[in-house]
């Protein structure tokens, strides 16, 4: 992949997508795969904001049954199956145990009824291209069976639990990148570190504005440019209203509601099953197995302020620990000192104000701006990872109508993403483990989860240069991935490399020695001087600090 902005010749696009998170990436792929001439610009790195602050799950939204959002649950469960089909190395079935206690706001009987509904709404869950990924039906467990399956469940007032299957997402960051790569395969032009500063506006009468593109700044070179298009789609998530303010009349501003969600990782394996339930205050929590560690989440509180001011705080972490410990740990409760890494982000919400953002769903809206006197602009708000492909399909349906182009059916649910073209996932792993028998079997499986069919490119780099064969962590990630990220995947900073192209930084600091090796190679590839190299190291070391 190459940043098109460096060689842009002024050609008009059919469509410009603002935002390179999962929504923008999905929209760009959907548009390009239907024959539109599309460009995508992202002000930071692809998938670096909300899309990097996920719970690493692809799920139907079990809790939305309690708010009677049946259509959203059904759509999510259908899309869960679609994503399993089109991204077999990223999306995997995983067991979940939802616990029930006497004072829960949703009783054990209600949860059991909910599971029957959940099962009914996912009637097509095993209509899979790869039958080896079939998911079992749910089971209702009594208290004894619940504790046997998950010994760390608090036993006091425990009634039982529901054992069911949803999906885990191995690497949301690389999953987002696979949509970007898929868009590029169909001719899309993409560029990270390109910020939209303004819109290109033509007057259409006294009060009407016609959007003809965007004015951008290349943050890597400082150069400015104008990108022209027939239509612009605003996919900037928590920044959607801020982007709109660049073109709206003063006083017409709509402030988007934002929810903050934080997670932390502890350096212990709690179990192989995801454990979830309601805390004493009625909030949903989970403990998810993640790379021989445990991922704990999540908060869902309304955030007031500028998106760029958000940060994970000690107070928020302590609140989450207290919530989780109300149903987890008979003797060995989670302590603040157990935490090795924290992360968080903002989610865009679309409803009117409610008492708590936890009550807000992850439904989405696709709106034109004609009501504000603005033509040629679509804004997408809300949504979640699971429904991102469907959201994109609907957004491009709307775009095609606006552009008055011939209707062309979506193909995105019928073909696998770039790097994901694997017919039988189990057989593919065995073939590659046999081919690369000098590597650990678990290492090859991990690399396949991250790179899919591109694993051959990574191993080839490692085999051709002994230094690049250096292991970077217990999962078996290689220094070759760093070179690959820079040369082929538009990685320009240590943060890009450690947190989004690889998973080296997602379990906390890998240690000064590993950081130095990665930084040295990056400096060679990107022509950094000693000062820039140290600056990059300082930035990521700050990211590894646990809030105090």
Please provide a written account of the structure.
With about 550 residues, this protein is an alpha/beta fold. Among the domains are: about 95-170 and about 255-355, D-Amino Acid Oxidase, Chain A, domain 2 (2-Layer Sandwich), CATH 3.30.9.10; about 425-545, Helicase, Ruva Protein, domain 3 (Orthogonal Bundle). About 30% of the residues lie in helices and about 25% in strands. It is built from 15 helices and 19 strands. It has helices spanning about 20-35, 70-85, 110-120, 145-150, 170-185, 240-245, 315-325, 390-405, 425-435, 440-450, 455-465, 480-490, 495-500, 510-525, 530-545; strands at about 15-20, 40, 55-60, 90-100, 140, 160-170, 190, 195-205, 210-220, 225-235, 255-265, 275-280, 285-290, 295, 300-305, 340-350, 365-370, 375, 375-380. Strands 3, 4, 5, 6, 11, 12, 13, 14, 15 and 16 form a ten-stranded mixed sheet that branches. β9 and β10 form a beta hairpin. The model is unreliable at about 350-360 (pLDDT under 50).
